[in-house]
Amino acid sequence: MQGTNSLSRRTFISQSALTAIAGIATPIASSGQRVYAGTPVSAHPEKDIEPPPPVTQILADWVARTSSEDVPAPVRKEAVRSLVNWIGVTIGGSQQDAVTFALKTLAPFSSASGVSLFARPEKVDPLRAALVSGISSHVLDFDDTDLRTIIHPAATVASALFALCQVHPMTGTEFLHAFILGVEIECRIGRALYPSHYEMGWHITATCGAFGAAAACGKAMKLGAHKLEMALGIAATEAAGLKITFGSMSKSFGVGRGAENGLFAAMLSASGFTSTEGALEGKDGYVQAASRHHDYSALTEGLGQHFEISHNTYKPFACGIVIHPAIDAILQIRAGHSITPSDVHAIVVRANPLVLSLTGKKDPKTGLEGKFSIYHSVAIAMVRGYAGQREYSTESVNDPQVVALRRLVRVIPDPTVRSEEAFVNLITNDQHIHEVHVEHAIGSMERPLTDAELNSKFRELAKDILPQAQVDELLSRTWALEMSKDAAELPKIGASSL
Hints:
With 498 residues, the chain is an alpha+beta fold. Helices cover 49% and strands 8% of the residues. The strands form four sheets. It has a four-stranded mixed beta sheet. Strands 1-2 form a two-stranded antiparallel ribbon.
């Protein structure tokens, strides 16, 4: 990374960590320059731009030194809620073709001595377990969401940790703390890069998730600050995933690879494998390579004072998050009036342009494609009164009644409409107009799912996959994770015996 003439990187950190963490300008001893957190990378020669702060080391130092006692109880509670949601959607996705095909491919390399997978009988090595769990947790597009970055925080981090804890014993408290720190790192990197990174075509959960998984696993393995920085550097060269794969199995595969890559990065670093210092902020580092516009202050400002997982939200609908306000509006209209699908003349949705950009598939043919179709989502919500896992099956996408109704849906992109809101007009055949404005959809920070609703979601996802008694025990043990002496109990309890 870019350094100073009279201060080493380590001395620099020890003298100015608080200033750097606060994102305030810090003098550089002999260069005559000042470091400003948030300095964008330009196309100018290196001598013309101000070097960013050593954020990779700041983050690694913080992860290494922070303890579970530094994390407030409400933050730990939200982390448990995140894991309840993650295990539920992982079980729900465990029987999907993407998971079955992946395990079929890996079968020659699996063995009885491998680690357990939620709701599956197979055992695979830890790296492949992280991969498969990442696919399983994300394939339904029903997982948690940080609405500021559209990252699904638990997907990679929990997948990697549940694989690791079966070969590297840790208590529930240690697991939860590592999980919180991993989410912190991935979401901060996401905020530093967003929206440029996403607009460039990167799948931000897969990319930033690799860093989160590396940080979480490194913490759980008790790596020191230098090795944590190496793990982040290794993850930087692995982090990938493309939005063009949305609507295919490769979307969840990218998330699985993020989990596997992050775990592998931590394992490599623990063994002495090295990377470049300053892999995030250095010249030709990840931040510069993966975004046109970025903000380094998002990486360090308020670090340890507030926690990113506190912003986590949980989906009530199994599709792209930007569709949720429109679904919410349709369900409100449906509940408030005696309207049947045959009464509908037209449905007009006015929404942020991002909605069509991400979910504009007019004629989906598969369940996975349906998850990225606002047209299908609005139609299925009107026909069935819900938008859960079953409403995004291939059968549901090709239901003649749903197909006919989605042809009556019109979407008007409007940049003045926020991505989390929607204006929906349903016009009946007698030309009566029912209008609903959803400012924040159910499941958002403003209208969060309750613990009871998370339990209901968990049970609904697991009920046809695992026996009821097993579901009950797993759910109870997950809520009590902090009390557990062995975090590996959860995947072992949650594995299928079939």
